[in-house]
Specification:
Radius of gyration: 23 Å
Helix content: 40-55%
Distance between the termini: 23 Å
CATH topology of the largest domain: Rossmann fold
Number of helices: 16
Largest sheet: 10 strands, mixed
Strand content: 15-25%
Structural class: alpha/beta
Bound molecules: adenosine-5'-diphosphate
Length: about 475
Amino acid sequence: MTGRLIIASNRTASPGEPKVGGLAVAIWEALSERGGGVWFGWSGETLERETRGVRLFAEDNVDFALADLTEAEYEGYYLGYANRALWPVFHYRVDLAHFDETEFATYEEVNRRFGRLLAQFTRPDDTVWVHDYHFLLMGQEMRTSGWEGPMGFFLHIPFPAPEIFTSLPQHRRIARALCAFDLIGFQTERDRANFERYLVEIDQASSSSDGTISAFGRTLRTKAFPIGIDADEIVNLANSEEGRSAASRLGRIIDQRALVLGVDRMDYSKGLPQRMHAFGRMLDENEHIRGRVSFLQIAPPSREDVDTYQDLRIELDQVTGRINGDHGDLDWVPIRYLARGYPRGMLSGLYRLARVGLVTPLYDGMNLVAKEFVAAQDPEDPGTLVLSEFAGAAEQLQGAIFVNPHDIAATADAIQQGINMPLEERIERWKSMDAAVRAQSIAWWRRAFLDELESLGKPAPDTEVES
Ligand code: ADP
C-alpha cells in the first residue's frame, strides 16, 4: 500500500514530546514506517464552550489533528458512557454499569463529530485504523460521511459474552456500527468468538471459519491480534542505572525477604482487594513463610472522577491496613502499598528483583504488566508469574501458575508455590513465556494488523484472476 495511514485514538501522544507507553510508540512507529500519516484524536483539553475544528501540528512526516471536547462532552462521552457503561460491561461488571440515555447521546454525538472531522482528512488511497472503546461508532460515521476505503478497528479491552453485551441498551446500535469496519481486531480468540457469537445468535449473521462475518448488509473480517511489548526495551530498562538503583533501594529495605510484586492501575478489574486477601490467607496458612516475604503493590489511582474508583481506593486502604495489623511485626510490614505511578525504568528494575509477579485481574483484555514482568527477568534466576486465567495474556503465557482470582484459597496456594518453586522449574517456565512474549511483540502486532487489513479486498496470492 502506498497511501497514508490514518490513525484515530481517543488520546494521542503530544506532538514534539517523547512517545511514552507501548501503544503510543507502536502507533508512532506505524505512522513513521509508512512514511507519513495522520494521528487524530482528542487533544486532552476540555473547554467550556464548543469549538468545531481541529488543531493541526506536524512532527516529522506525521500530522497530528487534535479536537477538543466541551466539559459536557467530557462528562457524558468519556467519564459517562465510555467509562461508566462500556468499561464495566466489557469487563463483565454489569453490577457497576450506569446506563444513561443522555450519556449515550453525548457519546454518539462525539463519535459523529469526530468521524466527520476525520473523514475530511482522508484521501482515496489512505488506510484508516481506529482504536478502542471510545470510538465504537466512528466507523459508521465515517461511512456516512462518504469514506469507502479500507478501515480497521482494534478493541484493546475484552469483548464480553453476548449474554453480557446485550445488557447494554444500545447493543444493536453498537454492533451495527462496528460492522462498518472491514477488519476488527481483538486481543484474544475468546473475544473474537464472543463477537461472532453475538452477531450469529442475536443478529442472524453468517460466519465462516476464517473469521469472515456477513451482518447488517456488510462483510467484514474478525481476527485476534494479541498486543505485545518490546522485550529488549524492558531488558535494557531493567539493567539501566534507574532500574538497578530502584531494585537496590527496595532490596535494602526488604533485606533477604522474597519480593512478591503487583503493578496495576487502580481499577476494579484488576482484582486488587482479592489479591490482598489471598496474600493474607497465604500468610495464615504458611507459618514458615511469615516474616520471610514482602508484598509490594504499586497502584496509581486512575479515573478518580468516577465514583466506583473512589470506593475502590477506600476498600484497598482498609484491606491493607487490616492485613498489616493482623500479620505484621515490629520488624516486618507484610504489604507495602504505594498509590502512585513510577517511571518504566524503575518498574522494570523492580520486576527483575521480584520472586513472584502477582497479576490477578478479574478480567483483562491483555495485561501488559504480565509480559513486562516476564521480559525483565534474569534468565539465570527468573521469578515466577502467578497469572489470572481471565487475563488475555493467559492465552500466550502458558508457563505461568494460573489462578481463578475469585478463588482466594487457590490464589494463596499459587503464591506459596511461586515463592517456593525450584530454580530448574522456574527457568523452564520462564523460557516458554519469554519466547511467547518475543514472538508476538508490539512490532509484530501492528504489522500483522495492517497486513491483514491491506490484504482484504485483494485476490489471494494463489487465486487466478480471469481476464
Ligand atoms: P491497563 O491498560 O488496563 O492499565 P496493562 O497491564 O495492559 O493494563 O498496561 C498497563 C501499562 O501501564 C503497562 O505498560 C505498565 O507498565 C504501566 N503501568 C501499570 N501500572 C503502573 C504503575 N503503577 N506505574 C507506572 N506505570 C504503570
